[in-house]
TrEMBL record:
<dbReference type="Pfam" id="PF13560">
    <property type="entry name" value="HTH_31"/>
</dbReference>
<dbReference type="InterPro" id="IPR010982">
    <property type="entry name" value="Lambda_DNA-bd_dom_sf"/>
</dbReference>
<dbReference type="InterPro" id="IPR041413">
    <property type="entry name" value="MLTR_LBD"/>
</dbReference>
<dbReference type="Pfam" id="PF17765">
    <property type="entry name" value="MLTR_LBD"/>
</dbReference>
<feature type="domain" description="HTH cro/C1-type">
    <location>
        <begin position="15"/>
        <end position="69"/>
    </location>
</feature>
<dbReference type="InterPro" id="IPR001387">
    <property type="entry name" value="Cro/C1-type_HTH"/>
</dbReference>
<protein>
    <submittedName>
        <fullName>Transcriptional regulator</fullName>
    </submittedName>
</protein>
Length: 263
């Protein structure tokens, strides 16, 4: 959303939209923010003008991402509070160093860093195992690279299960951010072919504790689980939207294969 588009939507309209998106009544929100429902109503209809502190207070209790908090501030006539720093700026040096340390330490196991739109920001050498044979044009977006028929999808043995898992994660992200770009990406991914059943609900089989990624590589089946890490106390939009996904062997055979190929 551009700044011009933000200013075309009044503050009250944005506030009402987020309240309804969070499935809150005016009473629910007033109880959270500790102001009257009358004042919430006046803010949404434009009969009252919020202070800067009130905008931030409402954003906090609506659990808005930092990017959307800036949008709400702009719509109310205030300057954005949260910076969006390029990763190559001097102030981001410590962040980039921490990311590189994590990625390097994770080799030979695969790991990637993505932004809010699942665009690839960085990866370690171990990711080459999963990226082999993937159309280079798809590598810029991790979800496209994973689920596109010219990506990793033909090599995923439990494609239906893994696809349902990834789409579920994206769907929950859309619920949190209301980002139209992610909605478009979801629709695109849903259109990719899949010849396996996709479970609507992830249920464990005997002995299962998580959904693995099972892929065929080098003539053998490899199995991984992943851990997703984010920065714990971000005050910058770029930092808040970064996610590091690290893949670990889900069985002894996969661990042994990775050790052997890296030695």
């Amino acid at each position: 959303m551009t700044v011009a588009q933000i200013h075309q939507r009044p503050f009250g309209e944005l506030l009402r939209g987020w309240r309804e998106h969070r499935r809150l009544s005016q009473l629910d929100l007033s109880n959270r923010v500790e102001i009257s429902t009358r004042h919430i109503s006046f803010l949404e209809t434009g009969r009252a003008t919020p202070s800067r502190d009130m905008v931030l207070h409402l954003s906090e209790h609506l659990d808005l991402p930092l990017r959307e908090r800036n949008h709400l501030l702009l719509a109310a006539g205030y300057a954005p509070v949260y910076a969006e720093s390029p990763l190559d700026s001097p102030g981001m040096a410590a962040v980039c160093e921490a990311i590189r340390r994590l990625l390097s330490a994770h080799d030979p196991y695969p790991a990637v860093v993505v932004d809010r739109a699942w665009e690839l920001v960085d990866a370690n050498e171990g990711i080459a195992l999963l990226a082999e044979g993937v159309d280079p044009d798809l590598l810029g977006n991790v979800l496209r690279a994973s689920l596109h028929p010219e990506g990793l999808a033909p090599h995923i043995l439990n494609l239906g299960e893994w696809r349902a898992h990834l789409l579920g994660r994206l769907r929950r992200q859309i619920t949190h951010t209301a980002d139209p770009r992610l909605t478009e990406l979801y629709a695109e991914l849903r259109g990719y072919p899949c010849d396996q059943p996709e479970p609507e609900v992830e249920l464990p089989g005997p002995g299962d504790i998580m959904v693995p990624l099972r892929v065929r590589r080098a003539g053998r089946e490899l199995s991984f689980f992943s851990i997703v890490a984010t920065f714990g106390t971000p005050l910058d939009i770029t930092v808040s939207e970064l996610a590091i996904e690290s893949f670990y062997p889900a069985d002894d055979a996969t661990a042994a294969f990775l050790r052997d190929t890296s030695s």
